Amino acid sequence: MSENKHECCGSGCCGDDCHGHDHEHDHEENTIHLTTDDGEEMECAVLGIFDVDGEEYIALLPENSETVFIYGYKEDGDEIELIRIEDEEEYEKIGDAFLAIWEEEAEEEE
């Protein structure tokens, strides 16, 4: 498992006390374990990795939460990097793209 340092996504989607995290990524379980700066560990389901304008992003859903975390995503072998989305316009665009993909997949399942 790899461990990298990164910051949470923009627009307050992580809450007020979510800053930097260590994470572990488990391809088999399709989860990522995040550890906040205050030591809280969260297991997050990977909802999807998706492309917007040639850049990859990841949507995560923490266990027992309804708040989706969205990060920029880069993978190099076993190493992954989650990248904070700081620009409000970019975050809105990425969030809208994720919702469109999520809704399309839900319709296909019906």
Structure characterization notes:
The chain is α+β, with helices and mostly antiparallel strands and 110 residues long. The protein has one domain (4-109). It has one helix spanning 88-109; strands at 4-7, 20-26, 31-36, 41-52, 55-62, 69-76, 79-83. A seven-stranded antiparallel sheet has the order 1-2-3-4-5-6-7. Strand 6 (69-76) and strand 7 form a beta hairpin. The longest helix is centred in the last third of the chain and has 22 residues, at 88-109. The N and C termini lie far apart (36 Å).
Question: What share of residues is helical?
Answer: 10-25%
Order of helices and strands: EEEEEEEH
Percent in strands:
over 45%
Domain count: the total is 1
Using only CA atoms, what is the Rg? 13 Å
Provide the structure class.
alpha+beta
> Low-confidence segments, ≥5 residues, pLDDT <50?
1-28
Put simply, the count of helices is 1
Main beta-sheet strand count, sense and barrel state:
7 strands, antiparallel
Strand order of the largest sheet: 1-2-3-4-5-6-7
Number of E-state strands: 7
What's the average pLDDT?
76
N- to C-terminal separation? 36 Å
Shape: globular
Summarize the structure.
Helix content is 20%, strand content 45%. By secondary structure, it is α+β, with helices and mostly antiparallel strands.
